[in-house]
Amino acid sequence: MNIWLKISFIFLLSYTISLGQTPIKEKVILAYKIGAKDSTILFRKTLQYDTSGCLLQKQNYYYNIREKGLLVKEEKAFFNTSTKSLTEEIINYVKGKEPVRQKLVTRYLDYQAKEGDSKYILRQLFDKFGELAKEDTVTYDKEQHLIELCSYVYTGSTSLSCNYYTYKNDLQTQWTTYAKWTTINAKGAVVTRTRKRRDYHYKYNQSGQLTRAWGKYYKKRFHQKLLYDKEGEIKENKTIIKKRVRQVGMKEKPSKKKYRPSKEEHILTYHEGQLVLDLTLVNKKEINKKEVTFENNLVKTIQRSRNEALLEEIIYTYNEALTVIKKQSNRYTKQGKIHHRTISYYDDNENLIREEQKMGERTLSVRTYVYDDKANLVEQSLSTNNNQSLEKTLYITEYY
Questions:
Q1: How many CA atoms are closer than 13 Å to the CA of 177, on its beta-carbon side?
Q2: Which of these, 35, 66, 135, 389, could form a disulfide with 152 (CB 3.0-4.6 Å)?
């Protein structure tokens, strides 16, 4: 009997180059499901980068976990350095049917190794028929501030949503959102509707720190206030959201009022600039709470509660060099007992090398990681308590 586990793997498309680290030219990732008799490939990913660490090409293949060798999905991407555009194609293979293709084209203003740092000006999604289904446009001013972000949807009733941003002295002062869509009125005629969905405003102190924000999003009104100490360190960040909630009544005893007011408070409390409390209240009742403790300016514990009941606790352990060597996450039952634990171990470079999942004292699974001398992942393995392998992922790296 084959034992298998669905792989849960997230891979960042872009690779960040640290100071002094050898840049990666190509990375091949192979993932296998280990069975009682043989192994079945889960996916194969090939990613190629330039010397700055930006993704130039990728070609990924995903296979059926039950039918060996059956391709179910393919992803391709190519970055054109002259036009600064990334073209991604996704192909889904459905058994007994024609392949379903989608294409995404992104035109960049600034293409960076870290995807979040990249600035794009156009993104277009084409559906399985090759027709343009969605289009996003981004506009920047001369100072490279984002001033407009619009999204057009061309399927069904066409719609447009645009976000506008204004600035003063390099600080954002306003954020508004307008929505426009086509519909059919009572006379059967096609008409265009426009609504302002968001209107946010921001105020700053002489040091350029945000002190107040307020506005409206749909029918929700919010007000945010930030406090700082004499040294300019943040002390508190409090946001209040007011809205109306539909009343739920019984058929025999309907509610007297259709709506009731609701007040949500989100309070962030800091000590010496470090977050120590994250609290959410609804109508003065505690809903979510996160408490953080520190030791030597490093996070020691994190506790998360819901409806005043402890939900999770994370405990960090450090060595003499003050680098993390162990992290333990405990999940609690409603009775306050630990029912699940995740224990993670790290090497001297804070690379994750082993992660154990436990239920009580019983080990459910163990995931191990191996790195090369450049701190890049070489192998990732998942096994059960009796050391029986479930899956393995290999990382084959070629350097410039």
A1: 11
A2: 135
Residue 380 CA: distances (Å) to CA of 3, 334, 371 = 18, 34, 9
Positive or negative, the CA dihedral 271, 275, 276, 278 is positive
HEC profile for 319-356?
CCCCCEEEEEEEEECCCCCEEEEEEEEECCCCCEEEEE
CB atoms within 10 A of CB 69: 8
How does DSSP classify residue 164? E
Alpha-carbon distance 49 to 113, whole Å? Answer: 9
DSSP letters for 193-238: EEEEEEEEEEEE-TTS-EEEEEEEETTEEEEEEEEE-TTS-EEEEE
Report the relative pairing of strands 259-271 and 274-282 from DSSP bridges: antiparallel
Tokens read off for 63 = 């296979």
Mean pLDDT in residue range 81-104: 94
Q: Retrieve residue 84's tokens.
A: 């600064």
- C-alpha distances in Å from residue 223, one per residue of 200, 213, 380: 9, 6, 47
The identity of residue 393, as a single letter, is T
**pLDDT grade for 13, boundaries at 50, 70 and 90:** very low
pLDDT of residue 334: 87
Amino acid identity, residue 233?
A: E
pLDDT tens sequence across 220-242: 999 999 999 999 999 999 999 99
For residue 191, give the 3-state DSSP assignment.
strand
- Report, at the CATH architecture level, how domain 286-350 is classified: Beta Barrel (2.40)
Between CA 25 and CA 400 the distance in angstroms is 5
Question: What pLDDT, in 10s, does the model give residues 136-161?
Answer: 999 999 999 999 999 999 987 789 99
The answer to which of 13-22, 87-96, 160-169 has the lowest mean pLDDT is 13-22
Contacts of 195 (CB under 8 A, 6+ apart): 178, 179, 180
**Every domain of the chain and the residues it spans:** 206-247+256-283, 286-350
The answer to whether 158 touches 150, Cβ cutoff 8 Å, is: no
Map 292-312 to HEC letters: EEEECCEEEEEEEEECCEEEE
107 DSSP assignment: E
Percent of the chain with pLDDT over 90: 77
Q: Per this entry, what is the length of the chain? A: 400
Cα separation, 358 vs 242, in Å, equals 42
